[in-house]
Amino acid sequence: MSRINVMKPWLGAEEADTVAEVIISSWDALGPRVAAFEAAFAEAMRFEHAVATSNCTTALHLALVVAGVRHGDDVVVPSFSFIATTHPPTYVGDAPLAVADVDPLASNVKAEPIGRALTGKTTAVIFDDQGGAPVDIDSVWEMCDPRGIILMEDAACESGSTGKGCPFGVGAGVGAWSVHPRRLLVTGGGGTLTPRNEERATRVRRLREHSMNVWAKNRADSVLAPAEEYLEVGYHYRMTDLQAAIGIVQLGRVNEIVARRREIVAINTPRLSQIPGLRPVRDPAWGEGIFQSIWVDIAPGLGATRGEVLGAGALADSSAHRGIMSSDRQPVYRGIDTEVASLAFCERLSDNTLILPVLHQMTDEEQSRVIGAACSGSGGPGRPMVLVILVAETGLAREVAAAIADHETRLVISSLDDGTAKPVSTIDGIEVFGAIGDVVVFPTEHPLVCVGHRAAGQRIVAQLGALSVGSARYATVVDRTARVIGSSSVGRGNARLAGVVMTASASIGAHVAAIPGLVLSHDDAVAECATFVARVALGANVPVGRAAHLSRNASARALSAIGWGVTIGMAAAVLGDIPDAEARVSVPVQPIERTG
């Protein structure tokens, strides 16, 4: 059984032949084949200018130099990236860094987390497209361009990806590309910079060669070599003709390589999606990625650790790797200017993602071995169903958790009523996993219980709708101690209705939190997003409006009506109609009449 590595370049006889031609030519340094590679790269990726460099990191460094970034400027970089994205700003006068978090839906940087990291001294933003998954570049550009902030794309993984029908990266102010053997397009090492104007392209070509004003190949070909001048401090950042020759052949194969990788991913990711808690990263709405690897997010509800999944791969001789690092955690960058409160998504993904091999040359047996190992390490299909619960306010989480404690589910996610992620906090002693957007971690077939209080519940429902979470994902669990009689009905999205008693024709709408002890009489009708804390009793024919809240031991007399958004205090007795528009009933010592 041969080992399956995470990456294996697709190289063959054509690359070997073209390298032999370079060797025979007696010129293997930066020369005519580098120029030919630059022209071919610019045409393939639809740029006017392309400048080959020694690697992607040096390309980013030169991009910062020609953009005029210097000491005292702020440069925003994503923490969720290989360390090479973070290093270049330190090369230009030790520019301070502001580290941006990632978006939990796209698993990539987006405008909002970048915007939170901007300061009045920010002159540049560097973003990258992790694993070949394109960033929503339009939203980042719209935020940066009016502020005069140059947008730089670390496109190390992006050769071959598309957005809106075009090669990706054309929207950035400048792009830095990698042709390292870990990437899709390989040259044995090297990089490419794509400036937007000729002046910067000319300066980059000079800077990469010690800032010499005469091309070294021209000097070598001259009988009487011209005297060169060095116009500024330059660098030794050159690609060789040997590398460029390989790159020219590879450029002709990019479309075929991408198509093959996408085919492998399309065949195999459905198997991973069948396992509760495994989420293969997919194409975003704004583009198509190249799938440098199969990138998998492991949810806390999986029941198996990332180490166990990786160990299963190792036993099958399949070399899965841990996911992308958080650079702010590395010793060299501890203590830098970070937006600590907003890096939790980045760090969660770093701790809970892994990458599986996708190789152009993979056989069906190798694909089966890679995916089979990941599935077996995760426990395989048939594990207990994951129940995702969104708790909109404190005071409900502990009771809801207790109500479902003996069910084959797990309380995985909670969210405060403003939707703000607080992954290191707790609600009623229950750890907060993330914000509403994190429901995408779980495959679409897994049920979701949405528990809301007042208008917060409605906001959660609306946000889930915007995330295309269909109604089929709203689960209702009716406890065995509940009594639902006759033609009573219970809507979707309710957490275990423990101890609820419903007589004939009573109804509960969607997303209602009914903590033990609710008693509904005949013809009672509870609208969506209402909450009942405990031991609430309604008389016959009492309609309860949307997002109403009845506190512990509250009661309502028959034929009274409770409007939408009403709050009923503890032990309050509703003896008449309560109007809409946030009308409130205080906590009385004695039963009270209705208030207006």
Per the CATH scheme, the topology name of the largest domain is UDP N-Acetylglucosamine Acyltransferase, domain 1
How many separate helices? Answer: 15
Beta-strand percentage? Answer: 15-25%
| Global structural class | alpha/beta
Query: Could you tell me the radius of gyration in angstroms?
Result: 30 Å
Largest beta-sheet characterization: 7 strands, mixed
What is the residue-mean pLDDT, rounded to a whole number? Answer: 78
CATH homologous superfamily of the largest domain, by name? Hexapeptide repeat proteins
Number of E-state strands: 32
Helix content: 25-40%
In terms of quaternary structure, the protein is: single chain
CATH architecture of the largest domain: 3 Solenoid
Protein model, in words:
This protein is 27% helix and 16% strand. It is an alpha/beta fold and 596 residues long. The protein has 3 domains: 29-220 and 234-253, 3-Layer(aba) Sandwich (Aspartate Aminotransferase, domain 2), CATH 3.40.640.10; 256-377, Aspartate Aminotransferase, domain 1, CATH 3.90.1150.10; 384-596, Hexapeptide repeat proteins (UDP N-Acetylglucosamine Acyltransferase, domain 1), CATH 2.160.10. The strands form 9 sheets. Strands 1-9-8-5-4-2-3 form a 7-stranded mixed beta sheet, sandwiched between helices. The chain has a 5-stranded parallel beta sheet with strand order 22-25-28-30-32, with no helix packed on it. Strands 10-11-13-12 form a 4-stranded antiparallel beta sheet. Helix 1 runs antiparallel to helix 9 (241-251) and helix 3 crosses helix 7 (198-207). The longest helix is centred in the middle third of the chain and has 20 residues, at 254-273. The termini are far apart. Residues 408-412, 416-424 and 588-596 have low confidence and may be disordered.
